[in-house]
Write a structure and sequence with these properties.
Blueprint: H1 2-6, H2 26-52, E1 58-59, E2 65-70, E3 82-91, E4 96-105, H3 113-116, E5 127-132, E6 152-158
Antiparallel strand pairs: 1-2, 2-5, 3-4, 3-6, 5-6
């Protein structure tokens, strides 16, 4: 009887099991594809508007288009500096969403990425117009006044 027990096959350890790749999560893949389509659509829409506008827009690295209305005459904005900015946010059709003046610490991510990523290239006193895609503006959540996934036009003055 003891011999019969010893002749049984030992349970397999995880390292002995057949290795299979995990099955892809179809929901996650669909969301990634949708997000890619929305991003490409936003970029194409803003590129068209920037080309058709009379302002001389330039494309920044993070997908934001910027035109300088008045170059600043002060010092360049520095990281970790407290900076006062007057911001007007419009829909691309011209509806005013917000008009506010705020003080933000540069580099602390208190501003939309469309502003935060580029502000250290501008001087105090500069007046700018930005065309910002939703992913660099207020994102998938939006704000109380700005809808989610909204491409926007931002007019700002750095004081």
């Amino acid at each position: 009887m003891l011999l019969a027990a010893c002749s049984q096959t030992a349970p397999q350890r995880p390292s002995q099991r057949k290795r299979e790749a995990p099955k892809p999560d179809s929901t996650q893949l669909a969301l990634l594809a949708l997000n890619q389509q929305l991003t490409e659509s936003a970029d194409a829409q803003l590129a068209y508007i920037a080309r058709e506008d009379t302002l001389p827009f330039a494309l920044y690295e993070h997908g934001t288009w910027a035109a300088v209305l008045t170059p600043g005459q002060g010092e360049t904005v520095q990281t970790k500096e407290n900076c006062t900015i007057h911001i007007r946010v419009y829909s691309l059709s011209g509806t005013l969403y917000t008009d506010s003046q705020l003080t933000a610490r540069i580099g602390a991510q208190e501003l939309p990425a469309a502003i935060e990523e580029n502000i250290t290239e501008w001087q105090h006193g500069a007046k700018m117009v930005l065309l910002a895609p939703w992913y660099a503006a207020y994102g998938i959540k939006g704000t109380d006044h700005i809808p989610p996934y909204e491409n926007i036009r931002i007019e700002l003055t750095i004081q």
